[in-house]
Amino acid sequence: MLKVLIVDDEPPARERLRSLLAEIGDTEVVGEAGSGAEALSQATALSPDVVLLDVRMPGMDGIEAARHLSTLEEPPAVIFTTAYDQYAVNAFETRAVGYLLKPIRREKLAAALGQAGRLTRPQLQRLATAARAERRTHIAARHREGLRLIPIEEVQYFLAEQKYTTVRHLRGEDLIEDSLRLLEEELAPDFVRIHRNALVAVRHLDRIERNADGQCFVRLRGCEAPLAVSRRMAGELRERFRL
Amino acid sequence: MLRQALRGGAESFYLPDFCTSRAALAIVLIVELTAIVLALARQGVNHGANPGAAADFWADLARTSLFLLWVGLICAALLCWTRGRLERLTVARGSAAVLALLLAVIAAISAAAYFIGHSQLAIGAGAAEFFPAAALPFVLRNMAIGFVIVAVALRYFHVTHQWRRNIEMRAAARVHALQARIRPHFLFNSMNTIASLTRSDPVLAEQAVQDLADLFRASLSDQRQHITLEEELEVARTYQRIEELRLGPRLCVSWDVDRLPRDARVPGLVLQPLIENAIYHGIEPRPAGGTVSIVGELTGDLITIVVRNPVAERQSEREGNRLALANIRERLALLYGELALVKAGRFGEEYIVTLRFPHVTAQSTGATATGATASKKAG
To answer: Do A135 and A153 touch, CB atoms closer than 8 A?
Structure first.
C-alpha cells in the first residue's frame, strides 16, 4: 500500500486525483493539503511515501514546498502536477523529474507512481532556477517534532560552522544543511556576505564599528553580538549602505 | 504606468523631418514646379496686355525660382532647426507657430529682394527691372500667397499623418488581439475542473462546458466588431462562473454596474481581460483569496468602469497584464479616439484599472461605422 499525500489549492483538482487513485488501487490517500505550508505539516505528521504536488499555489509554491520536504529525515518521493507552466515543464523534462499534466490521465498517474523517486536538495535548487520559480519565502530547519519554517524576512544572518550552517532569526537559532555559497547565490541582493563564514540580512543591518586594532564589526538590529567584517568587505559595505 | 498611458494617448507632431536630404530634394522640386506655374500664369496675363512680354518667360521663371528657392530652403532649414521645440507643443499651437515662422521668413526675404533691387549693385548692373518696384504691395502679396500654401501644406501633412497613424494602430490592435486571447493556463485548469466535475456533479460539469464554449466563441470572434455592454458584461460573468468553480470561496466578485447603460457599444472583450488579470494577479497568488470589485458609472454621456483587486504580497511579472491593457487601450481608441481613456496603476494595497469612454448606442454608431468604411475606401 503506497501512502499518498495530495497537494493542490483547487478543491476539484484534489477530488479528481483522489478518485483516480481509488481506481488505480493499491494506494491510500493519507491526506490532502491546499497550500505549500499545509503540505509540509501534513507530510511531517503523516509521513507519506509519495506527494502529488501542484506547482502553482498561492503563498508557497510547489517547487519551494518540495525543497523543504527534502530536508525531512525521511523525505517522500515527489511528483509535480501542473496545468500549464512552460518553464517548469521544461525543467522537469530535462532533469527527468516526475511530473503530470492536468487534466491527468489515469495510466500516466499509475506509471508515475511506479517510478516516483526522491529528489536531493542540490537537484531541487537547480530545478528551481531552471523553472524560474519564485525565490524561497522560508528556510526550513529540521526539528525534533518535524520542520520549522523560518520566514526569510525574519532571518538576521547565516553563520557557517564546520558541518552545518546556523540561522539566526528573530525567534532564535537553528541548524540547517544548506551551504553558505548556495544561500548567497539564491538570496542576493537582500543578503550580503561580510566574511568568509557570515551572510547577513541587509534589512537588519544597523551600523559598522571599528575597534582599537582596526578590526571592523557590523551590528544588526536586535542582535547583541557584533559580527566580524573582513577587511576586503568593510569598504564595500560602507559605500553600498552608507554605514 | 499612468504616465505611460498619457504618453500613449498623446499625439506626436505631424510634420515630416525636414533635416533629411530627401526632404531638401523634394522642396527644390516643389519650388521649381510652383515657379513654373507662377511664370506661366503671369505669362498668360501679360500676353493679353503686352505681346512683347512673351520672350521674358525664361527670365521671369529664373527670378521667380531664385526667390522661391531662397524661401523654400530657408523655411526647411528653420523647420529642421526648431523641430525639437515644435514637437513639444500641441498640434494647434505647433501649427500656428509654423505658420507664423514661415510667414516671417517670406516677409523678410521679400523685403530683402526689394532692397537689393534698389541698391547701387542692381542699378549699376542695369538689372533693376528684374526686381519689384514697390515694397509694401510686393511683401503683402507674397505673404498672402505664402499663407495659403503653408496652410494647405500643413493640412495635407496633418491628414496623411493621421491616416498613417490609424493604419499603424489597426495593425497593432490586430496583433495584440491575437496575443490577448485567453491564457493557456486558464484553459487547462478549466479542463481539469471539468474532468473532475464530470464524475462528481455532471450538471455543473455541463454548465461549465457551456460557459467555456461561450467564452471561446467570444474570444475567437472578430474583435474589430463591436458588441453591446450588456453582452460584454455577460461574457465577464461567464468567465467569473468558471473561475469560481476552480477557486471556490477564495474568489469573491462584487458587481456594481446597475447604473451602466446596457445598450452602449464597446469593442468585444474590453472588460473580461481586466477581470481575468485581476483574478490571475490579485486573487490566485493570495492564500486567503480576496475580492475583485467592478463599479460602473454613467456621468453625462461618459461611461466609467473601475476594476479593483488587492495586490499580491509578491509582485510577479505583469507582462500579460501590460499586453492586455495595451490591447484594450488601442481598441477603445480605434472606436472612440481621444475620448477613450484607460488608466491603470497601483494605489496602496490595490491595483486599479479605470476605463472611460463615451456612451454611444447602436443607432448612432451606425454612422461612425459607415464613416469608417468610407475612409477605408478613400485610403
So the answer is: no
Q: Exposed, middle or buried: residue A235 (CB in 10 Å: 0-12, 13-18, 19+)?
A: exposed
Amino acid A103: pLDDT: 92
* pLDDT tens sequence across A18-72: 999 999 988 999 999 999 989 999 999 999 999 999 998 888 889 999 999 988 8
CB contact under 8 A, A58 and B246: no
Higher-scoring residue by pLDDT: B322, B286: B286
Give the number of residues written for chain A: 243
The minimum CA-CA distance between A34 and chain B, rounded to whole Å, is: 9
Report H helices in B10-134: 21-49, 57-87, 91-117, 120-124
For the segment B31-56, the average pLDDT, to the nearest whole number, is 73
Q: Which residue's entry shows cell 494577479?
A: B281
Of B293, B170, B176, B190, which Cα lies nearest the Cα of B242? B190
How many cross-chain Cβ pairs, A to B, lie less than 8 Å apart? 65
User: What is the DSSP pairing of strand A155-160 with strand A165-169?
Assistant: antiparallel
Q: Which of B187, B199, B248 sits opposite A11 (nearest CB)?
A: B248
Closest CA–CA distance from residue A15 to any residue of chain B (Å): 7
3-class state of residue B341 by DSSP:
strand
> Where residue B128 falls among pLDDT bands split at 50, 70, 90?
low
Q: In whole angstroms, what is the distance from residue A166 CA to residue A169 CA?
A: 10
Q: What is the pLDDT of residues B153-169, one digit of tens each?
A: 889 888 988 888 888 78
Non-local CB neighbours of A226 within 8 Å, separated by 6+ positions = A209, A217, A218, A219
The full set of domains in chain A, from first to last, is 2-130 (3.40.50.2300), 153-241 (2.40.50.1020)
What separation in angstroms does the CA of B344 have from each of B28, B260, B326, B377? 48, 21, 11, 36
Distance of CA A15 to the CA centre of its chain: 27
Kindly provide the residue ranges of all beta strands, DSSP E only, lying in A57-163, ordered along the sequence. Answer: 77-82, 99-101, 138-143, 146-151, 155-160
> Could you give the ipTM of this predicted complex?
0.76
Of the listed ranges A122-136, B5-19, B268-282, the one predicted with least confidence: B5-19
User: Domain limits of chain B?
Assistant: 2-176, 180-378
What pLDDT was estimated at residue B377? Answer: 39
**A83 to B247: CB separation less than 8 angstroms, yes or no:** no
CA distance readout (Å), B293 to A125, A241, B45, B306: 39, 41, 75, 8
Assigned CATH topology for domain B180-378: Heat Shock Protein 90 (3.30.565)
Report the distance separating Cα A32 and Cα A7, nearest Å. Answer: 6
- C-beta separation of B72 from B114 below 8 A: no
- β-bridge partners, A227: A218
Decide if A18 touches B, using CB distance below 8 A. no
d(C-alpha B263, C-alpha B233), whole Å: 11
